[in-house]
Design a protein that fits this description.
With 151 residues, the chain is mostly helical. It contains nine helices and no strands.
């Protein structure tokens, strides 16, 4: 796999980028979801999808509100239940279920947990956040958007 940057999808298709960023704006500015939870879900989805740019970006966002030790354990959140609250755990499980939908089919078990942890509007907004990050990852990864991390 090459890490060389390819097209900048933002610049090539600005109307499409504007539409996708409209969803991002809604999620980050017009929902009741905490910023930390949004960035946590964005990071986990990006880790599953292998989008280096988004992993770099959302790790940095999370580090503004979450200790480094906790951010480092996001990939194994289920193994460290004491580090994440029940709503965060339900959101992370739902993020994995929705991201891996062809494998999980959004299981009844995961849905029951997330539905118990979030009000209906917040659950829809959380699912929109997951869907949007999956869309961003499907642009960021194939076009190899650059990362800020330095060697």
């Amino acid at each position: 796999m090459t890490t060389k940057h390819r097209l900048n999808w933002n610049e090539v298709a600005p109307a499409g980028a504007k539409a996708l960023f409209g969803i991002h704006h809604y999620i980050t500015r017009e929902t009741a979801l905490p910023d930390e939870l949004i960035h946590l879900v964005f990071l986990r989805v990006s880790q599953i999808n292998g989008c280096a740019h988004c992993i770099d970006l959302h790790s940095r966002d999370l580090l503004k509100t979450m200790p480094l030790e906790k951010v480092l354990l996001v990939p194994v959140w289920a193994e460290v239940p004491h580090l994440f609250s029940d709503p965060y755990r339900a959101a992370l499980a739902w993020a994995e279920e929705v991201t891996l939908i062809s494998e999980t089919h959004a299981s009844d078990e995961a849905y029951a947990k997330v539905a118990a942890a979030f009000q209906p509007k917040d659950l829809v907004d959380l699912t929109l956040a997951i869907a949007a990050m999956n869309a961003f990852n499907r642009l960021g990864a194939p076009f190899r958007l650059p990362v800020k991390a330095k060697p």
